[in-house]
Amino acid sequence: MARVTALSGVVIADFGRVLAAPYATMLLADLGADVIKVEHPDTGDETRAWGPPFAGDDATYFLAVNRNKRSVAMDLKRDTERVRELLRTADVLVENFRPGTMARLGLSYDEVRELNPRLVYCSVSGFGTGEGATLPGYDLLLQAVGGLMSVTGPAPGQPVKTGVALVDVLTGLHAAVGILAALRERETSGDGQVVEVNLLSCLLSSMVNQSAGYTMGGVVPGIMGNRHPSIAPYEVFATADVPMVLAVGNDRQFARLCEALDLPVEPRFATNAQRVAHVGPLVALLTDRLATRTAGEWFDLLTPLGVPCGPVNDVAGAFALADRLGLSPTVPLDGLDMVANPIGLSRTPPEYRRRPPKLGEHNEELR
User: Fold this and answer.
1) Is 0.85 topped by the overall pTM?
2) Cross-strand partners of 16
3) Fewer C-beta neighbours within 10 Å, C or N terminus of the chain?
């Protein structure tokens, strides 16, 4: 008998492509949902061709967000009855076409609700369905116009994007939360509803203290490099070998840092607010001392004292660290070392049942 998972019995019709929507549906698939990925017969999801790097013939970009799914090839314009039959029995529909596309295909929420009033209908867009409906929702564009690049970079006037499509990932997380909330409410009402998330709103919410500093404090933040606007010392320092981060979050930690570095706690550095006010001379003092040893030596000395620090790892180093800490960051799946789902559940943990599918691999299962 198959083991019950957190989302056993939940069927998701996944019309999503690229990253935000597929990431959301993969998380739900890991938790047991039966995700049916609907792709165009000719091209499939665009990310199937987004390489290098490749694992065999498959782009690792596509593999990253599409495990535990079944792929069926359907042309939404021509295979109308097959699509409608899928939606009659699905619990969730997820799509991230440009707003208005689903309506033109005869698949708006109102039309689909006639087929299945219990359906949870999740739409992911770049800028919402109003005045921003025609704007393209590319992650880089959102990082620029959404303010993230204005606080990211080495120095004022040098904005830099993050090293991953972070806005898409954050939006996928919000979409998954919204879907789960709608499924939970359906248990009471018996009805589905529309879940809408857009990249711009998710980014503004996810900028947390930077957004709140503006909306409630009137402060427009700017680029500070690796420095923090409200905490010091909280940035990257050079050592005798590789760069290292110090993330000193309170006065007690700072006192222990000074003791380890054989520095007096000067009155101008006694509190966090004073350290932020005098961050320039503070950083100069710390830079001189930290350059005398390697990052590994400082880690070994400061960590037992409760001073947060660590080297700036590359991705290989990050996975090695997670391995050393026993976090099991990867899982083997049909010859692939996949990144593990980070959610831990004591009774119904994530499962890894299927490698990412080939285009149309499961067509016959849905006939």
Assistant:
1) yes
2) none
3) N
Q: Which two tokens stand for residue 239?
A: 């050592």
Give, for all 367 residues of the chain, the pLDDT tens digit.
Answer: 457 899 999 999 999 999 999 999 999 999 999 999 999 999 999 999 999 999 999 999 999 999 999 999 999 999 999 999 999 999 999 999 999 999 999 999 999 999 999 999 999 999 999 999 999 999 999 999 999 999 999 999 999 999 999 999 999 999 999 999 999 999 999 999 999 999 999 999 999 999 999 999 999 999 989 999 899 999 999 999 999 999 999 999 999 999 999 999 899 999 999 999 999 999 999 999 999 999 999 999 999 999 999 999 999 999 999 999 999 999 999 999 999 999 999 999 999 999 999 999 999 887 6
CB of 216 closer than 8 Å to CB of 265: no
Active-site residue, from 14, 45, 91, 168: 168
Give me the amino acid identity at 151. V
> Which residues fall within 8 angstroms of residue 110, CB to CB, at 6 or more apart?
none
- Beta strand 11-14 with 92-95: parallel, antiparallel or unpaired? parallel
168 annotated active-site:
yes
Question: Is residue 70 a contact partner of residue 12, using CB atoms and an 8 Å limit?
Answer: no
The Cα–Cα gap between 247 and 229 comes to 13
Nearest Cα to Cα of residue 13 among 362, 358, 353, 338: 362
Q: What is the number of other CB atoms lying within 10 angstroms of the CB of residue 81?
A: 8
Query: Quick one: 315 exposed, middle or buried, by C-beta within 10 A (0-12, 13-18, 19+)?
Result: exposed
